[in-house]
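This part of the workshop introduces the protein records we will be handling. Getting from the letters to the tokens is the skill we practise here. An example says more than a description, so a record of this kind follows:
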Amino acid sequence: MVGRRHGRARYSGIARALSTGRRPRITDFWAWPPPLHLRDPVRIIPNMHAWVRVWSIAVMSRTLVSRTLVVTIGATALALLVWPQVAAAQPTPGGQVRLVVPFPAGGPTDIVARPLAQLLGDALKATIVIDNRGGAGGSLGADAVAKSAPDGRTLLMATVGTHAINPALYKKLGYDAERDFTPIALVAMAPVAIVVHPAQPINTVADLVSLAKRMPGQLNFGSAGAGTPGHLTGEMFKSAAGINLQHVPYRGSAPAVTDLLGGQLQLMFDPLQSVLSNVQGGRLRAIAISSKTRASVLPDVPTIAESGYTDFETTAWWGVFAPARLPANMTETLGRDIERIVHGETFRANLEPLGVLPTVLTGRAFAQFQAAELTKWGKAVRDSGATAD
């Protein structure tokens, strides 16, 4: 029989035994354990002293309480003490996690996110659901994650745009790229390529600079849009080389590549994965890439730094973030699992042929990387004068 007084459970047989000092009888245990739902251990643990007292009395007494019953009570008590800590160590509280991709399906960010989602789901024994939320240069999807609960159920596949460029580019941004997120792990990077039409007399960076100086302001370079990594890399290169190129922004890489192939543009700055197939097919010529090292898919193409502009480096990148105040144990677990995935052959095989390099940083190292990127790209945005509403 179970009664309630002042909101606290009372168990008649055990209560009488404890209050009168008599030895408990076997019938006192018929209603034991308390019929509280095991998913609410916080309500049980405050009564743990009662469990221990009853168990001690039962062991010391000479009643017919079976040894099995005593062991069961003790094991249950221990499990209830340990269970909350085990549950808290789980990186996700349920079987489904939403990975927000702040760009349309099929784009570069989606291409990085999908193999990661599959492998991370296997590691967590959870279902990772891709939620494509494009708009405002990725800001809409990022803002949705920033406003989500920090419970491990919602993650963001962020980009250099959402977490390094947009804070300087957009006059009004609904989130703070550092304060409103928990950085989990950097997962991939891709250089920006300088590509020209094969008919152009430009085979090297030196050729480009020489021609631009002979024809100041007459060479046009295209990009996927104002404030994109391609556009800003072009602006930084102009400054480093001391040349004047005219920027022509497009709404995405595809129309810019079409005009470059058609001869309406002389050159283009764009992340390598967007132009790689045309370069490999001989329809475009890559004269340099912006990363520190050469790309394995184009080993004969030098870096801009190798071409005489020491320390020049820009990369597009992708990383996983969670809402701010994600518990530290969840952050560490997700970071470890993602690090194993990025180092694994399966993830690498999905990305390297596309010109994307799996690269991992976790924890403080990733946070420091993002802070440096915010400074670098923020300056590039301000110097270029690019803005977005």
In short: Residues 100 and 131 are 5 Å apart (CA to CA). The longest helix spans residues 67-88. Residues 1-12, 26-89 have pLDDT under 50 and may be disordered. The chain is about 45% helix and 20% strand.
